[in-house]
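hey team, just a heads up i'm posting the complex here instead of the shared drive bc the drive is being weird again. everything in one block, sequence lines first with there labels, then the predicted structure for the whole assembly after. its two chains so it's a bit long, scroll down
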Amino acid sequence: MTSIHVTDLTKDFSVRKGIGREAFRAVDSVSFDLLPGRTVALVGESGSGKSTIARMLAKLEKPSSGKIDVTLDDGTPVMGSVYRRHVQMVFQDPFASLNPFHSIEHHIARPLRIHRRTRGRAETHERVLDMLERVNLRPAEDMAARRPHELSGGQRQRIAIARALAPGAQVLIADEPVSMLDVSIRLGVLNLMGRLQREDNLAVLYITHDLATARHFSDEILVLYRGRVVERGPADDVILDPHHDYTKLLALAAPDPERVGKVVSDESAPDRSSIDNSICYDHYARAWVQAGSAPAGDALAAKAAVR
Amino acid sequence: MTPTQEAPVASRPRTRRDAVLTIDDLTVVYEVENPVTAVKSASLTLAPGEILGLAGESGCGKTTLAYAINRLHKPPARIATGSITFHDRDGTDVDLLALGEQELRAFRWSKLSMVFQGAMNALNPVTTILTQLDDVLVTHEKQLSKAQRRARAAEVLERVGVDPVRLRSYPHELSGGMRQRVMIAMAMLLEPQIMIMDEPTTALDVVVQRDILREIVRLRDELDFAVVFITHDLPLLLEISDRIAVMLQGEIVELSTAEQIYADAQHPYTRRLLSSFPSLSGSRGAFIRTGVDEGSPLEQDTRTIVLPDPDDLEDPR
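-- predicted structure starts here --
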């Protein structure tokens, strides 16, 4: 199985400022591991660098510094086309990520052909139907012939998942996979991803701003604020016992009917200026650490114990 | 009556109207090949100063209902039956379905305004914020001078928490949350008695969303308008609304106070909607990675009718 070790990942963008340009640090020394069978959630507001991390992992963006080590179980580095085959992405908007011109069959057959997973038309067709069955799109034969506009948002997102898994993905990067979907079908899609993860022992990076699903869907949560990880730890610990001001702010902002307290007008606006993203609370080490520093040695040991 | 000359908000006498809007037995039909009844005999009343949540999934008729209240429908959509009555602050009742073109034009925005779905993209990208706010005032408040209009525009922006310096900005220079606030400012420019908000926070992240909700509640308290808040996010509605109407396939299947809906939902669909949100702080519930079977009702799509896209409807096939 393939796992990913990210060390001190940093990305600078060059932005226009007046007539000159200046560097904007979108991601600042972020480190984490993606291991088979485990889900890591990246949580944060828009602009916190979540999607940039995803794009760097999928090789859509080049890191400014830091390392992304992708290795097989025996430590062999994964590179080139195998990398592209093993690390696959599911995008946020299922209405934009499928080509309206092509049939569903085409969408799933293409990665199979590109990665030479099947030989001949008959085998490809069979594999496409298999994949559709796996994502609960039945009858598969009928679905394969349709075009994206004939499907609902949830069905389209299933196609996107099938497309990512078709070439034999081992690491799935899901960038807000359900935020564009209707609430009543969100859980279905997440449940589906959970089942596929168990079946294939996938490593999943789940990017979201929805704390509730992050908590239920992942093993580990990283809270990102202005490019830095400000809190990390097991999902329940981070959500139920937040330490960093920003995590608290996020938890407070999320609608939660079980918490007493409606939105009221005299509620004071949170003070953003006091939020410090240079420190990070590590629930494994149970201590504050410098944001950006890799988890300390004993933290890794604690992490291993959790597993 | 210019807004600037009005009595201070706090001293405005609260009228004893028990409703500001009454919808009775409203049915909206899309007259396409196989006519689709998008709203089926919906009835509800909106009390002054109330926040009424309208929940349901896409295609259930939420937006169609909102458009009907504003009389925004074009053929093939048709209001088949029912009545919509607006009870004005001064005591007169207005039958919205009987208004002529000019009356309707005067009525819209000054009595009832709307924050449209995808408000982030609803601003005109090629003119400044000031021009767009000014447009409303030029149309509805002809007697105002240029300086007065500008002052009024600055005032509403300030009210929603946007620096009036931004009047000179173009929409692309603002963040999503700010554009959303500008849209809300535009909707309250004429101090309407009802504001309809169609998914005003959907594309925003939770922190900004909370900011905007707080703003809406505060403005409601200050200006005493009623809000129809449309969204599919039921937990959010539970936090902001006084009463919630749940729609399913064009029908209002449940209408009750927020507390009642949360504690004791009557309709199975409401319970299903509630259960499709994993709770943030509660127990893990019937969720996911432990291997819940996927054949559970959560999985199935209840929609049997699919509404034609409004855009599709407009171009002649």
